[in-house]
Structures are given as C-alpha cells and as structure tokens.
Recover the amino acids of this structure.
C-alpha cells in the first residue's frame, strides 16, 4: 500500500466542496492487505474518507449539517448515516439487531471511483476468481457499493485469467433433471455423487515427488461439496475416504459414480473388489453407475469438479511462488479451503435492495457458517493472538 505523504484539509463551501487531488494510481491494495482494509487499519480509514469526499461531497455536507439529502442524490434510497469515524455508512431499519455495527452499517464506496475498483480487484483475487453474485455478496459484508454489480462484472471482464477460463464451446440442450436432483425432505448427502480428478504432484522429500488425486463427493440436491485427497487408487484408500465422509455427513442412501475414462482403468479395483461391495451391503447403500462414455450423465458432479479444479489451481499458482510442488498437508488444506469456498457460493441472486436477506448458500443447508472469510489476524505472534482471542471471549 502506498503511504500518503500529506492529506490537505477539505475546504467545504456552501456551493460545493473542493478537495485536493490525490494520485490514486499509486494506491495499491494487495490480497494480504484485505484484513487490515476491512478493519480500516493502517491508513485505510483516511483513504476511504478521501474516496467518499471526492464522490459524496454534497451528501457529507448535508449529513454534517443535519439536513435531508436532495431528491436527486444517488444515496437517497440507501438512507445513509454519518458514523462516529466520519464515514458515510449504509442506513436502514435494522439498527436494533444484535449484530456488529460494521455489519449493519458498512461504509459506502462509489462504484465509479478508482479506489473502489482497486478494492474490488483485490477481493476478486482473494476469492480465486469466483462468479459475480458470490463476489458482490461477499464484498457487501464489509463495504456497500451502490451499483457494484456492474463494477464487479467489469473487473471480471478485465481479468485475463477469467476471460481465458470463461471461453465456452457450443452448449448442448439440457434434458430433464434426474429424479435424484429433485428429491426433497431428506438430509444433505442422501443422494451423493462421486468423482476423482488429478493427478497433482506433491513434494514428499527433497527432490522426490509423488502423484496424488482429489476426490469430490457432492449432494445432488443441495449441491454441497466434500473434498479429500487420496494417495492411491486402491480400494482400501477409497474405503477410508468413504468412512470419513460418512462419519462427518452421515450415510448416503444412493451413491452415483462416473464411469468415464477416468474410472475405466480403476473400476475393477475400486468397485468390483469384494471388500467394497461387502461394505456397501452392510451399510445398505445403493450404488449406481452411469453408462460408459457419457460424461453428460454426470453433469451435476462434473461441473463441480471444474469449479473445484479452477479454484484449486489458482491456489496452487500462489503456492508455487514459494514451493515448486505443494506438500501433502498443503494440498489437503487447500482442498478443505476450496470445499469451504464452494459451499459458500450463493444459490440465489444477490439483490440490490439492502433490506433483502443475503443469498442462500449450500452452507445454510449444512447448518454451517461461511468459511470463505479473510483471516482476522496473523499467527506470527502466538501470545498476541491468544490475547486477542481472550478479549473476544470476554
């Protein structure tokens, strides 16, 4: 982040507000700066103030004077308030809710300002190039950008990686959904689909690597995701993953698997092994195969494999700045984080009305909180972190 040498005072007049110019091109917000940004630490409070003063100078003058906003103001429908820190914040009628002040009244940022675009670009990189609704709903937990959807779309259009990955070939006409996708009244993962992806090179020791694969299990109804790393394609390793999955989410009633090219060489070892089918009969599960060479039959899990690989490979690119190959624990950790990222994706559209509820996510069906939030601090100083946790508990 660039350091401001001087911020000249704002000179307010009755006819308008004159603000000294600032080189916003020199202001950089990196992914590591996001925790400080959402807490408005390290000079970010002054930057947000300056950004609001350049865009909402007339509104700030009227709020400071205790006057109503003009009917032509773009912030009139948001009922803005002036916080104790001098920031223009989102208003509303939920002020008595037992939620943090920053959540009820996030600061407003102008969509056409360069500093706002810099912040959105940092969130875009932090969330691993996610879709528009996911990103706008996540940003609104910390900042409210009027008309921010178009800004997020523009940032995604300008991102070279997003343009490359969003290139699509011709699409096929979608058939009717399978009955497994339309079941209701059952717990999550009652109908589960499984698929493997990879291989991914991991570092075992110095100058020694091995290939590991990822296993994706998804609920066909709620679209929840569970990701795990498998060391080999043996039936024993697959059974251990299945047992861990059942221990966390319960036993599926129907299990669907891919029968494409990635399973042809391992089908006998994975699913025709007597131990596997003895385990299936003991648990009372029904195992269904899709026809050979029909990947479109498994579109429910194939699309999630694509989403998981896109987020995972983006995270691996960041890790390669420090290590050429990730370790097994690093890969397993990233798979868990990607699963939390996918389970936090919105299933409904993000509304522009601040009075509406946030979008529904798959984590809501699992009765879990969204785990894609940025960390609230670093673990460099263990004593300091313990002190902060004790203050939060008290």
């Amino acid at each position: 982040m660039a350091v401001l040498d001087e911020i000249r005072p704002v000179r307010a007049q009755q006819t308008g507000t004159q603000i000294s110019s600032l080189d916003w091109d020199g202001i950089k917000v990196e992914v590591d700066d996001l925790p400080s940004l959402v807490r408005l630490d390290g000079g970010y409070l002054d930057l947000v103030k300056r950004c609001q003063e350049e865009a909402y100078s007339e509104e700030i003058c009227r709020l400071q004077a205790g006057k109503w906003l003009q009917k032509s103001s773009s912030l009139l429908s948001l009922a803005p308030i002036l916080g104790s820190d001098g920031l223009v914040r989102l208003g509303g009628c939920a002020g008595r809710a037992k939620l943090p002040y920053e959540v009820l009244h996030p600061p407003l940022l102008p969509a056409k300002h360069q500093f706002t675009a810099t912040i959105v670009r940092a969130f875009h990189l932090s969330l691993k190039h996610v879709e528009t609704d996911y990103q706008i709903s996540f940003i609104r937990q910390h900042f409210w950008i009027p008309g921010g959807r178009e800004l997020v779309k523009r940032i995604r259009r300008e991102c070279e990686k997003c343009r490359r990955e969003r290139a699509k070939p011709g699409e096929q006409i979608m058939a009717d959904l399978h009955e497994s996708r339309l079941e209701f009244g059952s717990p999550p993962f009652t109908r589960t689909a499984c698929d493997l992806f990879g291989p991914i090179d991991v570092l075992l020791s110095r100058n020694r690597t091995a290939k590991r694969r990822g296993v994706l299990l998804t609920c066909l109804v709620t679209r929840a995701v569970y990701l795990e790393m498998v060391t080999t394609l043996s039936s024993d390793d697959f059974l251990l993953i299945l047992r861990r999955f059942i221990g966390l989410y319960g036993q599926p009633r129907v299990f669907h698997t891919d029968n494409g090219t990635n399973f042809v060489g391992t089908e006998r070892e994975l699913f025709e092994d007597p131990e596997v089918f003895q385990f299936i009969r003991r648990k009372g599960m029904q195992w269904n195969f899709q026809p050979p060479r029909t990947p479109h039959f498994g579109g429910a899990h194939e699309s999630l494999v694509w989403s998981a690989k896109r987020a995972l490979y983006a995270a691996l690119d960041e890790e390669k700045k420090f290590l050429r190959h990730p370790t097994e624990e690093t890969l397993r950790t990233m798979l868990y984080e990607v699963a939390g990222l996918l389970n936090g994706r919105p299933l409904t559209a993000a509304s522009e009305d601040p009075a509406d509820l946030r979008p529904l996510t798959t984590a809501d069906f699992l009765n879990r909180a969204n785990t894609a939030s940025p960390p609230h601090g670093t673990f460099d100083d263990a004593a300091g972190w313990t002190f902060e946790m004790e203050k939060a508990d008290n």
